[in-house]
Amino acid sequence: MSKGRDGAGAGGGAAAVLLRYLREQNRPYSAQDAFSNLQREHGLGKAAVVKALEQLAQQGRIREKAYGKQKIYFADQEQLPAASDAELRGLDAQIAALSGQVQALQQSCRQMEAELKDLSSSMTTSEMAKEIKELKRDCESYTEKLERMKSATNHVTPEEKEKVCSEQKLYCREWRRRKRMATELLDAILEGYPKSKKQFFEEVGIETDEEHNVVLPAAV
Fold first, then answer.
1. Contacting residues for 68 by C-beta, under 8 A, at least 6 apart
2. Per-residue pLDDT tens for 123-179?
3. How far apart are CA 156 and CA 162, in angstroms?
4. Beta partners for 64?
5. 3-state DSSP call for residue 69?
6. I need a surface site. Which of 35, 57, 140, 205 has the fewest CB within 10 A?
7. How far is Cα of residue 30 from the mean position of the Cα atoms in its chain?
């Protein structure tokens, strides 16, 4: 009999704690959230919390709302004392101040995120030292190569370069001229040829530049 009275007392204590907590916080909680928030301070078990919340809801002292399999509990707003105009103005001022703090913190977070991104994309000191070492090695290699080129005796003179360029122009012009003549001649033959152009080329043994991926240099 004593055990039953203790259980009732414990249940009543849990209900009182939960009712006070929901009214003070004035926001919705699931049974799990309420249990997590109150177990350390008040030593409430989860079963006791669930039972007390259900009893409070059945008694109409708090409100209950189901979302699928999840239930949330919150204070009945009609049972809370109405706030005065002064209290409402104070709450509005507090909301405005907190909103300003939130905006400032968000701006600060964005700035820190940008700085973090810049730092993440930058090289570390060890990476930079390695890069400098490699660049110095490349510079030494290029300097050595340049010195060898300067000291070489087989340089191409401007006159020799001009001669090679002139010969290239001459050969390219001749190439174009002969290709044009051959194309015109073959087109004239194909006008009276009963088979296709490909068959004619195969029978005669003509090979085109395109078959060998040969491209005529651009005119210079």
1. none
2. 888 989 999 999 999 999 999 998 888 887 777 788 888 898 899 889 989 988 998
3. 10
4. 73
5. coil
6. 205
7. 35
